[in-house]
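Lab notebook page, bench 4
Experiment: in silico fold of construct C2
Operator: M.H.
Input chain length: 173 residues
Purpose: comparison with the prior construct
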Amino acid sequence: MQVNEVVLGNVCSLGAMVADSISGRKKDPKEILTAQTISQVFWTAGSLILKGYSASVQNIIGILRNIASIRKINNRALEWTLILSGVVLGIAFNNRGLFGWLPIIANLEYSIAVFRFRDSEKNLKLCFLAGVILFMIYDFIILNYVGFVANIIVAISTLTSLKKGSGKSSQDL
């Protein structure tokens, strides 16, 4: 991989981080999802440039999922189609061997968690943390150092939140 590709891919990831930061400050769910959709466009571009195609597919599916949510399309069949599409297309476009499975597993695991643990902040955070760790490893492999560092920060933040004992509910494991 050429240095130009690594730099450009990481610049795209920096754009994604900025959009993610903006989404964290929004209060309106539609604005949050819009900012996260913009973020996923940047993450997609970065992973395409860095030749991390299985992650690109996960981000594209995430964009479609956000658009459906922004438009308030509440359809279980569509939700499961998008989740399964992420797995099938992620496998089809995997060019990183075993490491290419990391974003596929992360996206699948968290998507299922959203359905299963939607009322448990603690369990959602634990599942989110697992996905972040998988993406952190994947980002390092594809030379996405900005994404790697961002995921370290997110993991520490999530662990800190869990350690403070927030998120208890009757649904927790």
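Observations: Residues 28 and 76 are 23 Å apart (CA to CA). The helical segments are 3-25, 29-49, 53-70, 76-92, 101-116, 121-141, 145-163.
Next step: discuss at group meeting.
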